[in-house]
Design brief:
Blueprint (H helix, E strand, L loop, with lengths): L5 H12 L5 H8 L3 H13 L19 E9 L4 H13 L3 E6 L6 E7 L2 H10 L7 E8 L10
Antiparallel strand pairs: 1-3, 1-4, 2-3
Length: 150
């Protein structure tokens, strides 16, 4: 188990900000020698605290200019219904996040599409054909002043 101390928290903060930072720069920022810093990063990886590194993409430059959060209610609360819905969401490339939540609905999705017509197609062809979906509430993202997703 990796230590949850101030230096490890600083390392994680720096790596979250820039996963490609060199070990030398990271060590300087957190006040460690490069070898001690590398050992800590490797321990955080071994302990599963750091599970991977990702590229952060500019969705606009990829032609994905329309983002929504969608609340989805299911008509049945069975394991079969949940698993079928989750399989459908796994297969849909527009769905970038799918969360099973508590409350009046069962799922919260983040869906990213090129534009409104492509969202309508997803809404009709994917959500609209699911036999278990009984409620859909769409929230269009107009801006994201803070977004820490990597």
């Amino acid at each position: 188990m990796a230590k949850n101390d101030k230096i490890n928290r600083q390392i994680l903060q720096e790596l979250t900000r820039d996963g490609r930072i060199s070990n030398l720069e990271l060590a300087e920022r957190v006040g460690l020698s490069p070898s001690a810093c590398l050992r800590r990063v490797q321990e955080l990886e071994r302990a599963g605290v750091i599970t991977g590194y990702r590229a952060v993409l500019d969705r606009q430059k990829l032609g994905v200019g329309f983002a929504t959060y969608i609340g989805v209610g299911l008509g049945e609360h069975t394991k079969e219904a949940q698993e079928a819905f989750e399989r459908a969401m796994q297969a849909a490339p527009e769905v970038v996040e799918c969360h099973n939540i508590t409350g009046t609905i069962e799922y919260l999705l983040r869906v990213e599409c090129a534009d409104l017509p492509s969202y309508k197609k997803f809404h009709t062809d994917i959500l609209g054909t699911s036999p278990y979906v009984t409620a859909i509430t769409t929230y269009v993202v107009m801006g994201s002043p803070k977004d820490l997703r990597a």
